[in-house]
Amino acid sequence: MERMLPYAELVDQALSASFQGWDFGWLGDRATSRPLSWSYDDLARAELQRATRLLDLDTGGGELLASFAPLPEATIATEGHLPNLPIARDRLGPLGVDVRMHAGTDPLPVDDDSVDLVLNRHGRLTPSEVARVLRPGGILLTQQVGGHNDRGINEALGAPASAVPPGSPEAGTAEALVRTLVAQGFEMLEVAEEYPEFAFADVGALVYHLKAIPWQVPDFDVDKYEPALRALDQQIRATGPFVVRNHRFRIRARLQAR
What we know:
By secondary structure, the chain is an alpha/beta fold. It has a single domain, classed as Rossmann fold (3-Layer(aba) Sandwich), CATH 3.40.50.150. Helix content is 31%, strand content 24%. It is built from 9 helices and 10 strands. The chain has helices at residues 7-16, 40-48, 63-67, 84-92, 127-133, 151-157, 174-183, 203-212, 226-239; strands at 31-33, 53-57, 74-79, 97-101, 115-121, 134-145, 186-194, 197-200, 242-245, 248-255. The strands form 2 sheets. Strands 4-3-2-5-6-10-7 form a 7-stranded mixed β-sheet. A 3-stranded antiparallel β-sheet has the order 1-8-9. Helix 1 packs parallel to helix 8. The chain is globular. The termini are far apart. The relative contact order is 0.18.
């Protein structure tokens, strides 16, 4: 068994490691989630077989969308995090994707009734805007990070409870989002919700994760939380990975005729 690095080295490595787009490759197998009973990727590919005009919301660095190529000729992707825009454009531009800036709760930079498929994986979702840009009969496929996600991290650190990811006030639970979508004229086709285990093999992996996902512990600082982090480091060395539970749900819905 490979010897684990000392606490300080694990933390320093995590703080100095770069994070671009939505690429967690640096972690390797140091942070692993038990698979969901569904595959968003497979569901998205199935919908893409029938789509001619696609909108991908909060595309990050375009990593996932690029993996679905070839894409419909008319494909738009939006992204609100400025550092991700050039990454997404460099990756998706050669695939014919029009990458557009979309910040906060502004209206989507997309015409009314102009797309027949909206994909959204762990991104902001405003149901009224999705209903506006979708054609009647169009499909929304979304997988969301729920409001109970990884609460064990906050509890172990003694940190305040995390908020739902920014821009997703309706996405705390599947039930809440379903109610909002139905009010906007959507028919539910599939709804599922699960809480898979998520394991950190060392404290450096946890620090990197919290650096990349700042809304989990908004005031996270390694000095502020050093006692709790050191306690987790000792726990992992003594008993094995630190395990919490993700919160994920997915919805496939069709916009009904207006």
